[in-house]
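[job 0412] stage=fold_complex status=start
inputs:
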Amino acid sequence: MSISSGATAAPRGGAVGSPLLAVDDLQVEFRTGSGVVNAVNGISYTLAQGETLAILGESGSGKSVSAQAIMGILDTPPAHITGGTVVFEGRDLLTLPPEEQRQVRGPGISMIFQDALSALNPVYSVGFQIGEMFRAHQGLSKKDAKRKAVELMDRVRIPAAAQRVNDYPHQFSGGMRQRVMIAMAIALDPKILIADEPTTALDVTVQAQVMDLLKDLQRDTGMGLILITHDLGVVNEVADNVAVMYAGRIVERGTVDDVFSRPAMPYTEGLMTSIPRVEAKGGRLVPISGQPPNLARIPSGCPFHPRCPRRRIGAEAAPGRDCAVDHPPLRLVVPGREAACHYSEEVLGV
Amino acid sequence: MGRYVARRLLLTIPVMLGASFLIFAMVFALPGDPIAALAGDRPIAPAVAAQLRDDFNLGDPLWLQYAKYVGDLVQGDFGTDFAGRPVLDTILQRLPVTAKLALVAVLFEIVIGIVAGVLAGIRRNSFFDNLVLVSTTIVVSVPILVLAFLAQFVFGLKLELFPIAGVRDGWYSYLLPGLVLAAGSVAYVARLTRTSMAENLRADYVRTARAKGLKPSTVVVRHTLRNSLIPVVTFIGADIGTLMGGAIVTETVFNIPGIGRAVFESIQRQEGAVVVGIVTLLVFFFIFFNLVVDVLYAVLDPRIRYD
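[job 0412] stage=fold_complex status=done
writing structure:
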């Protein structure tokens, strides 16, 4: 099938064109019986056509929750979006009536998930599940939808698509299942694709194939890609820009090349030194000490300060920049680079 | 699948032989003399008694009696009761009554049980959910005998909505006994559906369905209910086999001439041929409906394959 291709992929690094999506001060909390968990605490970013934005963070940093908030698929309760705006095509998705929000999911923004085996319904054939996109949004008949499904399966390079369209998810390998998910997500030619850890459940060679497929599809369609991951290698290979999340906040943002070569936030710095490197063979990996914070009790000041090797507390700190007291906002440190650290200049060495 | 069904059907033969022998042996072991009981207080001529004993092979040892019975059975002869009435006639007369009662009960399970379970599962911790939890707890903890009399008293006698007993009003007279018979299963189906729905609503593929921009009704019916009904259908299918066994209490309280009461009466009269004939047939139904459930399971869940 032909997917209209108006745009070419953005060059690596930097946003190109007007933003497709603008997230501003998004806040999500989970209200549970034992208290309030602050999962997302005011994150902002924009995504341009053809851009690949990686959202990097540990488990529980709020990266998946923020994506589900944008999609409007959080379970409410317990999750509540308590503030912010998500502007897509001139409309704030968070204030749209549910029916209009639903119509954005699929043709506007679509999403793929980590474990395709559990994310696909086991009792329907893959052709049916892909075809549902056309039936729900374009009112196609069951037969036409299935024909479209075969075309899509071809497009995501599933061999013998016509024979396999009636197979069930459990009859596919892990990599092929993730391709089915991708076929479903790109069915309606979305402007934005959110990939939530798309390769985490796959082995390394299959990971590379799936990432290549996503990049090819993006090149063909010019869609914006939000890649949620904790895999630094994947970020380095495919993303243009990266936003590092910690305790529900973005703590550093910039182009992948800049952030990876010269971090401006001690947390990012810690992540970079924990990457195994070929040239440092035989050396020890340097882990970040301590545990990620409990989101029900986020530390005061900078949420990273209890684990930070560069923290300055009390008399050591500059006035108004006590890491244990004063919350560091995300600020422009050098052109094209934002970080949430009182002492970013020092980290950068500028 | 075909081979699997054939193998399962072949397996029913030894099961039915075993079951019928056990039942036969139990009737044989009952204390008392059925011929003397048949005569009651009136004296019976020894020659007549001996003739009856001979007709019904009552003088033979157990194994020979059973062998003669099975020999007749494979020729399609279910034997007769002491009054000379063919057992097959009794079965053909009583079974449709029980089948109707079971059908009404299953419809209640499907309609009330599943609807209540789905609504409670979707709106967990709501007023309706709690209502379902409390009412099902009450229903399963009250003995069916109490439920039967209560229903008869309130709906039959006081409100006069339903006939108090008997089956003279056609299908309508089966509604109240059907509801009483189904009560426990309705409660179970409601709870099973509720749990299954609540569990599936949290499933990853339901989140996917929402991310696809499907209508909320499609998400619930196609991607949650369909998956949630697999264990429910399995239970209801197996329950049909149980319900076909008749319900002695319900049939007795509501004076319904079904198969359950026929068995009960035959046991009291020590009519071996009737008891064994009917119960063996019921064992077959039970096995058959369980087989249907297993086949249905594979249809509902494509991950299950028997070959």
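[job 0412] summary: Chain B touches chain A at residues 202-205, 207-216, 218, 223, 226-227, 230, 300-303 (CB under 8 Å).
[job 0412] exit 0
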